[in-house]
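Hi there,

I know you've been waiting on this one. I reran it after we fixed the sequence typo, so this is the corrected version. Both the input and the resulting structure follow.
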Amino acid sequence: MLSERLLQFSVLGVEWVLWLLIGLSVISLGVVVDRLMLFWRTRERLDRLEPELMSALQAGDLAAARRKVDADSLVRNVIRAGLDQIVGGKRERGSVEQAMLGAMARERARFEARLTPLGTIGNNAPFVGLFGTVLGIIQAFQELGKMDSTQAASNQVVMGAIGEALVATAVGILVAIPAVAAFNWAKASIAARLKQAESLMGAVLSGLSEADCPEPAADGAAGN
């Protein structure tokens, strides 16, 4: 009974699988366009930012350093969180570092948003296409079983049906390749920006003078 019901489902053919793959490709394209717009709008231009920021920090001009990171980008948002702590008078090294680490976590979540569906589509679209191919082949043999011996002897019927079924596998691969490529590019770009943010975080923390970040007094000094 169960096998008969599954067989009835399989003879629905491959067309609905192709429509599903088209839907997945539209979703994938939407995510890629959305991420491309975000990455382009928040491009870093560190070749200009880093020397200018370092110069302002070395000169002790926190206001100028703060102005350098006003724009919206992963690196700038992280560094701005630390500079805001310093300008606000909270100059303990730990507080400044935690503020920047918190900003980094938020920025990472913002840039990685919607990448999970993209990776899922890239990894599973070929299997969806293969599933459609299997359904198409089952349907082809079902039709072949209904033919008489003269019609069944013609290979054109079987080959045509199987060739149509294999289209689903091809479409699945076609959907998966750009999705995987975009996912890998986005992850690599985020990783590179996080490393750049960590590098400038170190510069901000090292720029804090001992006077601005006093070390806690030793226990023995309390008695003197």
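Quick highlight: The CA atoms of residues 150 and 220 lie 104 Å apart.

Best,
R. S.
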